TrEMBL record, chains A, B:
Protein's UniProt keywords contain tRNA processing: no
A Pfam family hit: MerR-DNA-bind
Organism lineage string: Bacteria, Pseudomonadati, Pseudomonadota, Alphaproteobacteria, Hyphomicrobiales
PANTHER family (UniProt xref): HEAVY METAL-DEPENDENT TRANSCRIPTIONAL REGULATOR HI_0293-RELATED, REDOX-CYCLING DRUG-SENSING TRANSCRIPTIONAL ACTIVATOR SOXR
Native source organism of the sequence: Microvirga splendida
PROSITE patterns: HTH_MERR_1 (PS00552), HTH_MERR_2 (PS50937)
Name of protein: Helix-turn-helix domain-containing protein
This protein's UniProt keywords: DNA-binding, Transcription, Transcription regulation
Keyword DNA-binding: yes
DNA sequence: TCTTGAACCTCTAGCCACTAGAGGATGTAG
DNA sequence: CTACATCCTCTAGTGGCTAGAGGTTCAAGA
């Protein structure tokens, strides 16, 4: 009927210390305990933890997941807020991609350096000289 | 002739606590001090700190920068190692872009959800259900 | 019933690259 | 000589875990 933390871990692919961490920060409710203080979980905890895992895999921050979990428990509400959170996250991801793409192009130019001496190395030059690339952030 | 930490900060756009942090982890050498223990920098410290800043802007990790700084000080050496470090970093950046692009596509499908009730929300469904997207890491 | 040992428990500290803040000292311009 | 911007050190916090110490519990097999 009830699962140990290890069984929950196996079913969700979330590591045991991570489960305890999620409990500590309030993403997972405190489960019941045996007399010896070991945690015992119910099947619905598997569902909740899977939800959390999927959201983390999609790059949602813990704070966003906390909000999504709150909203998800309210079936009659409009999902506008869920949409907004996801959209905001999508925009962040797009931003990151844009910045990394600029970075990639810069690095690709740099690695065309053909193994001369350090004193003529294009990479070292780019790094040592001025800030042509001040627009880049990370 | 010599610069205060604030002047160094202004010239390099690196924040004062960050400069002290770089000293602490050994990226910057300990500068001379006034009698009152305030740091005083030489112009070459500006160059070194600019090098560090450029490398950070390009996403190099501190460990990589430590190596690059070591190599940069050796003008007659071949820049093969510099090339390798940069190439490895480039590959990491490409990897990140690939993962984020997969994420973006997944999120874009999700946000096509058209504001129904939570109980029919596509986003919540994706998060709650299965792991079609187990291949995604972040 | 007892023993073994895998799995559990709590607690603290570490990772990266900073950032923030407390509480006090220094240095320079007027 | 005073005011006050800037400097100093030290500690703790950020996010999302992960690792390890040192001890306890539980279930299966003898």
């Amino acid at each position: 009927m009830s699962l140990t933390i290890g069984e929950l871990s196996r079913q969700t692919q979330v590591k045991v210390p991570t489960i305890r961490y999620y409990e500590q920060i309030g993403l997972l409710a405190e489960p019941t305990r045996t007399e010896g203080q070991q945690r015992r979980y119910r099947p619905e905890d598997v569902r909740r933890l899977n939800f959390i895992r999927h959201a983390r895999e999609l790059g949602f921050e813990v704070e966003a997941i906390r909000q999504l979990l709150g909203l998800a428990g309210d079936p009659d509400r409009s999902c506008g807020e869920v949409h907004d959170i996801t959209k905001a996250h999508l925009e962040e991801v797009k931003d990151k991609i844009a910045r990394l793409t600029a970075l990639r192009d810069e690095l690709e130019t740099m690695v065309t350096c053909d193994h001369r001496r350090i004193s003529e190395c294009r990479i070292i030059e780019v790094l040592a000289d001025h800030g042509q690339c001040q627009h880049l952030e990370h």
